[in-house]
Design brief:
The chain is mainly alpha-helical and 536 residues long. The protein has four domains: 121 residues; 64 residues; 180 residues, Rossmann fold (3-Layer(aba) Sandwich); 86 residues, no CATH class. Helix content is 68%, strand content 5%. The strands form two sheets. A five-stranded parallel sheet has the order 3-4-5-2-6, sandwiched between helices. A two-stranded antiparallel ribbon has the order 1-7. Helix 8 links the parallel strand 3 and strand 4. Helix 11 runs antiparallel to helix 12 and helix 13 packs parallel to helix 16. It is rod-shaped, with a radius of gyration of 56 Å.
Length: 536
């Protein structure tokens, strides 16, 4: 214990305190022993401290190794999970690669087909290029002709400018003519009533004369038989001779009367349509009348609308137009062609039938007639044949609402020209015409073959019409009027697409893929912007 106590360095003091007397030898031995034990004890403690320190370090290292082992086990688990996911992804990739390989095979087959089609198209393009070159040459020659015409127009313009300089002097003259024309209009109406009554009396007279002629011919025949039977000469029968002369005179009178009546009504051709002799004059006067009722010639599609109207007015086919616009157009036509600002007008009334229309058309000498409200109120199967007897007249059928036409079979479009222009709101209400009246000379217009028409444009129209719900027969009849691509665009703008959207209640672009290809964003149609804005 002394080696660990305070007295390890002074053993003698320890024994003095304990009051024990020890010999010096004992104290020396004890001091040596204590010193040795103390030194050995200190060395053991130092060694023990070193071992403890080493043990702590080993414990720390062991703990760190345990943590590392734990982390490695976690990493191994993560790697195993990742390996599982990678295997799963690998299977999916393999499956996708197989699918891609199948697609690649199909695409390869499709590419082969497309290459074959491309070769065929290239062969067709060679032929089309030659055809296009021929068309270009034709158009070039036409362009030269147009340039020559333009030079002529410039000369005409200079003449018109010179005429315009003297126009102010003619204004007062025209005003006087207008006043006299109004007086003539009232006189004309009175004369028309007189002519109608004369016509009826002439018919009765013709009937009586025909009866007299039949009787006279019977007498003549009996007389000839009598002469043949008895071989009697003319001078022995003066009375019979006088009767024969009277019969011949009556026959001449009948023929003269029939010829006079025939001449009176010779101007009425019930079958052949009429058209202006000079379309440029008609176009000019008709445009003045349209502007007079508020039509804006600078609005989008306005020039196409006027051009489309002028192509359809003189075909001898009735026009089917909404009421306000139809009446305005009828009045403009009447004022343009024969100087009367109000066209002949027949309004539907309860109980009115086809016979009333026949009587109206037979009795009115007017070139332009407006039949209002009969569509939807009478039998179209009887109406259309009745109207076709008066192809020399411009007949405008009007209706009030678009929905009215939804109850009528769309086959009616093969017998009438449906025209809609709701986009031009300025002419939808009935307006009075104050434009100066004009007269346009007209000539007979027989049917012209449409053999040189653009068959491609006709085919496009038929495909669009059939996809929108019209029958093939109706589509082909309508397409027969199409002469070129410009006419196709006008018919889409003012006939087919308005009918599909307003009457059938469909969106034309949703109904027809052919319309999307032709007049969609990527289409080649020159009027696609207007068509998409109006009907898209």
């Amino acid at each position: 214990m002394l080696s660990r106590s305070f007295f390890s360095g002074n053993v003698a003091l320890f024994f003095k305190i304990k009051r024990e007397e020890k010999s010096e030898d004992y104290l020396k031995v004890m001091c040596s022993s204590v010193f040795y034990q103390s030194a050995h004890q200190k060395a053991n403690e130092e060694e023990l401290d070193f071992l403890k320190k080493s043990q702590r370090e080993l414990t720390d290292i062991q703990e760190e190794l345990k943590n590392q082992i734990f982390d490695e086990e976690k990493n191994i688990e993560k790697l195993k999970k990742k390996e599982t996911e990678l295997k799963k992804e690998l299977k999916e990739k393999i499956k996708q690669l197989e699918q891609e390989q199948e697609k690649s095979t199909r695409l390869s087959e499709k590419v082969d087909k497309l290459e074959a089609e491309l070769k065929k198209v290239q062969d067709d393009e060679v032929w089309k290029t030659a055809e296009m070159q021929q068309k270009i040459d034709t158009l070039t020659s036409k362009l030269k002709d147009q340039a020559e015409k333009a030079a002529g127009y410039e000369t005409s313009i200079s003449e018109y400018v010179s005429r315009l300089s003297t126009a102010e002097d003619d204004i007062e003259t025209w005003k006087n003519k207008v006043r006299s024309r109004e007086k003539q209009l009232f006189t004309y109406k009175a004369e028309r009533e007189t002519l109608l009554s004369d016509k009826e009396s002439d018919r009765k007279k013709i009937s009586e004369l025909k009866e007299a002629l039949d009787k006279a011919l019977g007498v003549e025949k009996a007389y000839k038989e009598y002469l043949s039977a008895f071989g009697t000469k003319k001078e022995f029968y003066p009375q019979k001779n006088r009767e024969l002369e009277e019969t011949l005179e009556a026959q001449k009178n009948i023929e003269t009367a029939a010829e006079a009546v025939s001449k009176r009504y010779a101007n009425t051709d019930w079958k052949i349509p009429l058209c202006p002799e000079d379309m440029d004059d008609f176009d000019e006067y008709f445009s003045y009348n349209l502007e007079n009722i508020g039509f804006d010639m600078n609005e989008d599609g306005s020039s196409d609308f006027v051009d489309y109207l002028e192509k359809n007015f003189f075909c001898g086919i009735p026009l089917l137009i909404k009421r306000g616009l139809g009446i305005n157009l009828a009045n403009c036509l009447a004022n343009t062609i024969y100087g009367v600002p109000i066209a002949a007008y027949l309004l539907y009334s309860e109980g009115a039938g086809i016979q009333k229309i026949r009587e109206f058309l037979a009795n009115t000498p007017d070139r332009v007639v407006c039949i209002d409200g009969f569509i939807g109120n009478c039998n179209e199967l009887e109406l259309i044949p009745a109207l076709e007897q008066y192809r020399n007249k411009i007949i405008i059928l009007t209706y009030m609402y678009d929905k009215t036409l939804s109850f009528i079979p769309h086959e009616i479009l093969s017998s009438v020209h449906f025209i809609s222009a709701d986009v031009f709101s300025s002419v939808l209400r009935i307006r009075d015409i104050t434009e100066d009246p004009s007269e346009v000379k007209e000539i007979s217009s027989a049917y012209k073959s449409n053999a040189g028409a653009d068959s491609r444009s006709q085919k496009i129209f038929c495909e669009i019409a059939c996809e929108c719900g019209l029958g093939m027969d109706t589509a082909y009849v309508m397409a027969d009027m199409i002469e070129d691509e410009n006419y196709l665009n006008e018919m889409l703008m003012f006939t087919l697409l308005p009918y599909v959207s307003k009457v059938l209640g469909k969106n034309p672009y949703n109904s027809s893929k052919r319309l999307q290809r032709y007049a969609g964003e990527a289409g080649r149609c020159l009027k696609k912007d207007i068509l998409m804005r109006w009907f898209g």
